[in-house]
Specification:
By secondary structure, the chain is mainly alpha-helical. The protein contains four helices and two strands; from the N terminus they run αααββα. Helix content is about 45%, strand content about 10%. Strand 1 and strand 2 form a beta hairpin.
Length: about 90
């Protein structure tokens, strides 16, 4: 079902409406499918972290991702916005 959805080009809602499938059911299948493709058995994965001295112009926290992408969080950041961002990144 996950492969059908991903190949369909439809939104989750459209796909579920056409097939009479609850959104939560599709979400569960898509999550499992992605975990299997990524070799993720659901267990947390550890990543290397390097603590470096800043130059005074960087944020309080910087996460550098593949492809040159980065997330920079400065003092006083909005935690709810960061949570939503991380949730969206995890879905990708």
């Amino acid at each position: 079902m996950a492969a059908e959805y991903e190949a369909s080009g439809l939104s989750r809602q459209e796909f579920c409406d056409q097939r009479g499938v609850p959104l939560k059911t599709l979400a569960r299948y898509v999550t499992r499918s992605r975990q299997e493709r990524n070799g993720n058995d659901g267990a947390p994965k550890w990543v290397g972290v390097e603590v470096a001295a800043g130059d005074g112009n960087t944020g309080e926290l910087v996460v550098i991702l593949g492809g040159g992408r980065r997330i920079e969080v400065r003092r006083g950041f909005d935690t709810d916005t960061l949570r939503r961002l991380v949730a969206e990144l995890e879905r990708a």
